[in-house]
Amino acid sequence: MATLQLIGFGSTGWGTLLLLGALMTLCVTAVALAIGAVFGAIVAAAKLSGNLILKTLGNVYTTVFRGVPELLIIYLIYFGGSSAITSIGKSFGYEGFLGMPSFAAGALAVGIISGAYQAEVFRGAYLAISKGELEAALAIGMHGALRFRRIIMPQVLRFAIPGMGNVWQLSLKDSALISITGLVELMRASQVAAGSTRQYFLFFVVGGALYLILTSLSDRVFNGAERRANRSMPSAMGQA
């Protein structure tokens, strides 16, 4: 009880702040993963295509966003986006600085980064599909859309689940860097609580424990999804 009072579940409300920060971390990570899935799917398709230009662009994307530090990308998105919004505002007669929303900047930055990793996950998942199944689909006259819906997409999603779990964990940790934009996610909440109370060790340990809880729960969710996908795959193939 004394510990709960100390970390702020009592009158000060620091515990509530940490819990809200953890919720914000989950929200920004989920949005970033969705953004990354769009970028990743497009880049994976480009790298799998026979077009040299598209393959080159896909390779450049994955090389740049996996090689450049995540913090630098967040800075570029946040300050670059703010500059662009300010320029647009000035064109409409508004004088002053317009900052890019912290949530949007953070989710977009982490999403672009995760997209580089998801592209490789999707590409590897596609290459894991048995060539015989694709050839059989062509032999029985399946058109492209039906082949994608019945064979390619279900198996790509199935093979991609373990890799997507890793990307989720990476994005969850990268979300801590968004605190530099002022977004009150878990890391920022821990910093505010620690700075206000001068109990740095306590609040950073609690913040780390909450990150471990989030990652552990995420592991269970992705492991369950993988088991379910592996069980349902034979029946899905039978329906195909």
Automatic annotation (TrEMBL):
Keywords assigned by UniProt, alphabetized: Cell inner membrane, Cell membrane, Membrane, Transmembrane, Transmembrane helix, Transport
Keyword Cell cycle: no
Membrane topology: Multi-pass membrane protein
Transmembrane segments: 20-46, 58-78, 98-117, 200-218
Entry annotated with the keyword Cell inner membrane: yes
Subcellular location: Cell inner membrane; Cell membrane
Gene3D superfamilies: MetI-like
All copies of domain ABC transmembrane type-1, residue ranges: 22-222
Family the entry assigns: Belongs to the binding-protein-dependent transport system permease family. HisMQ subfamily.
PANTHER family linked: ARGININE ABC TRANSPORTER PERMEASE PROTEIN ARTQ, CATIONIC AMINO ACID TRANSPORTER, MEMBRANE COMPONENT
Protein name according to UniProt: ABC transporter permease subunit
